[in-house]
């Protein structure tokens, strides 16, 4: 009987991106029937790969319920559900800060002007970056400068909670290094370089993406992150700023839910990912 794999998109962006067409083609050549549909539209499938669930942060309660339904139905998943739930909320960075160098991160579960200003005063941070505790694709990621802005941030954007970090100016120069791993083995890496005058390394802000060879320091940090997890994810992307002149790597994110894997930037990447998927299916 043919194995079915539900490659999820989302209702906000229901179409599969062109750079995953080859992935679908190679899986079907190996006898896997691929169903492409939003995660919100339930499909009967043996396995699910939420690689394009790019709106879950806007529907986090529904997404958690969907994960629970997968567990109840016994649907096969490629990264453990407990790891996915942990990775949804960016306070996972507090755990990883015990392992590698992470951009200093403070969580405000119930952000308000008093708590925010008290934090800025306590840390003596003049320029900070604000991110939703549960967020994707740079949405509601803003920069706030204590000396230049009189208006406080709009805290209504952060109903899930707020991450506050000092602004790391080096990202303007070095961009963000993204390293992709399959079963803990390094596959390929890209640099996401913001345009001049921009600092957010997301596709929504005109970032340039190109293949690179990561530094030994960046690769070692990424391996430390993955080895620290309770279980090795089948696919993962580790992002950070590789400050080459200072010889250190600042972790920005670990993504094990729906990372852009940039398979089109490396010749063997799609084949490697297909093989990892097939191995997982065969092991059950």
From TrEMBL:
Identification of the protein by name: Glutathione synthetase
Annotated ranges, domain Prokaryotic glutathione synthetase ATP-binding: 123-233
InterPro entries: ATP_grasp_subdomain_1, DcsG_Biosynth_Enzyme, GSHS_ATP-bd
Gene Ontology MF: a single term: glutathione synthase activity
Coiled-coil annotated residue ranges, if any: none
SUPFAM superfamilies, per database record: Glutathione synthetase ATP-binding domain-like
Organism: Pelistega suis
Taxonomic superkingdom: Bacteria
């Amino acid at each position: 009987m043919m194995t079915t794999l539900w490659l999820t998109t989302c209702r906000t962006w229901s179409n599969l991106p062109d750079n995953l067409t080859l992935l679908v083609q190679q899986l079907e050549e190996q006898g896997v029937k691929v169903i492409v549909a939003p995660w919100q539209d339930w499909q009967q499938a043996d396995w699910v790969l939420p690689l394009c669930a790019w709106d879950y942060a806007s529907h986090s309660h529904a997404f958690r319920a969907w994960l629970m339904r997968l567990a109840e139905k016994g649907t096969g998943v490629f990264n453990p559900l407990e790891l996915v739930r942990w990775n949804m909320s960016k306070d996972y960075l507090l755990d990883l800060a015990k392992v590698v160098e992470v951009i200093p991160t403070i969580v405000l579960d119930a952000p308000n002007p008093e708590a925010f200003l008290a934090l800025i005063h306590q840390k003596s941070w003049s320029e900070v970056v604000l991110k939703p505790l549960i967020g994707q694709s740079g949405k509601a990621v803003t920069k706030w400068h204590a000396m230049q802005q009189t208006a406080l941030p709009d805290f209504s954007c952060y109903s899930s909670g707020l991450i506050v970090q000092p602004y790391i100016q080096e990202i303007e120069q070095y961009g963000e290094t993204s390293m992709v791993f399959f079963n803990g083995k390094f596959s390929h890496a890209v640099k996401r370089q913001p345009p001049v005058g921009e600092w957010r390394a997301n596709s929504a802000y005109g970032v340039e993406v190109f293949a690179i060879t990561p530094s030994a320091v960046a690769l070692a940090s990424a391996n430390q992150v993955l080895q620290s997890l309770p279980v090795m994810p089948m696919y993962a992307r580790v992002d950070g700023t590789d400050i080459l002149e200072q010889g250190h790597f600042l972790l920005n994110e670990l993504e094990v839910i729906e990372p852009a894997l940039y398979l089109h930037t490396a010749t063997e990447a799609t084949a490697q990912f297909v093989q990892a998927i097939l191995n997982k299916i065969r092991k059950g």
